[in-house]
Every structure is written in C-alpha cells, then in structure tokens.
UniProtKB/TrEMBL annotation:
<protein>
    <submittedName>
        <fullName>MarR family transcriptional regulator for hemolysin</fullName>
    </submittedName>
</protein>
<dbReference type="InterPro" id="IPR000835">
    <property type="entry name" value="HTH_MarR-typ"/>
</dbReference>
<dbReference type="InterPro" id="IPR036388">
    <property type="entry name" value="WH-like_DNA-bd_sf"/>
</dbReference>
<dbReference type="InterPro" id="IPR039422">
    <property type="entry name" value="MarR/SlyA-like"/>
</dbReference>
<keyword id="KW-0804">Transcription</keyword>
<dbReference type="GO" id="GO:0003700">
    <property type="term" value="F:DNA-binding transcription factor activity"/>
</dbReference>
<keyword id="KW-0238">DNA-binding</keyword>
<dbReference type="GO" id="GO:0006950">
    <property type="term" value="P:response to stress"/>
</dbReference>
<dbReference type="InterPro" id="IPR036390">
    <property type="entry name" value="WH_DNA-bd_sf"/>
</dbReference>
<dbReference type="GO" id="GO:0003677">
    <property type="term" value="F:DNA binding"/>
</dbReference>
<dbReference type="InterPro" id="IPR023187">
    <property type="entry name" value="Tscrpt_reg_MarR-type_CS"/>
</dbReference>
<feature type="domain" description="HTH marR-type">
    <location>
        <begin position="5"/>
        <end position="134"/>
    </location>
</feature>
<dbReference type="Pfam" id="PF01047">
    <property type="entry name" value="MarR"/>
</dbReference>
<keyword id="KW-0805">Transcription regulation</keyword>
C-alpha cells in the first residue's frame, strides 16, 4: 500500500476512535446508548422509515437494527406502525419523546462543534465535511468481495 494510503487509513482509524468516544460521551449525557441515538437521529432526519431502510442506512444487519429499535420502542422513543401500502410491513417513527431527544442531541452536537472547532472558520468546516463525505462514498463504493478477500 502506498504511504499516502497508510496515512489515510491511520487518519480514518483516529477519526473513528474520536467519533466513537465523543458520541459515546454525548449519548451517555443524554441517557441513551450511542447506537440508539444514531437511529433516533436517522429517523429525525428522514422521517418515517421501514426497518430495512434503517438497517441499510446504518450499514447493519436487520436483526441488529431490530434489537436496537425494540429497545427504543420499549423506552418510548420510537413507535412501530403498520405500513399503509403494505399491511405486512412495519414502519418506524419518532414519538414526541424521541423528537425531544433528537432536538437535545442536535443542540449538544452544536455545542461540541462550537467547542472543538472554535478556531476553524466556516469554509474550513465545510471543506472538511465535503472531504469526509468523499472518503465515505469512496469506501462505500468498494465491492464487498474486495473487502473480504
């Protein structure tokens, strides 16, 4: 692997660790597991979704997403409903408590960005976001068989 590739992998590993740590602390401060908070924020951003789309968006198996959603339903943050188009399917939506948690999370993430990136100007933040999205898209485009050999 070229040196630039190793440098990129190392930077991604550091980013992943930093993201897990900060998101974990933030989720804990909100009284919610980190994985559950991801689902709450996904539903807040995209609205009502079937379980399969939640699993696909989070890049997890549907059984994993189902367990996480069940915990959110039990805690009153998410509601399961019968899909109007396909009565066999279930859709997921936030409850009022789930929307409140999402609003609190957005506020907390805003404070995190304001603190952690206080000396960055807006154009640098936007450029970094664009680069991170490009890296994520490039990784997501790698065929699965290339990842497992």
């Amino acid at each position: 692997m070229p040196n630039a590739g190793r440098t990129l992998i190392s930077a991604l590993q550091a980013l992943g660790r930093a993201q897990r740590e900060s998101a974990g602390h933030l989720a804990e401060s909100l009284g919610c597991p980190r994985a559950s908070l991801g689902i709450v924020l996904l539903l807040d951003g995209r609205g009502t979704l079937p379980l399969c789309e939640v699993a696909e968006a989070l890049k997890v198996d549907s059984s994993v997403a189902s367990r996480q959603v069940s915990a959110l339903v039990d805690s009153g943050l998410v509601r399961r409903s019968v899909d109007d188009q396909d009565r066999r399917a279930r859709t997921l939506e936030l409850t009022d408590a789930g929307r409140s948690l999402a609003a609190d999370a957005h506020e907390a993430f805003g404070r995190l960005v304001a603190t952690g990136f206080a000396d960055w100007d807006e154009s640098d933040l936007l450029h970094a976001a664009q680069q991170i999205r490009s890296v994520a898209d490039a990784i997501s485009s790698i065929p699965r068989e290339e990842l497992v050999r």
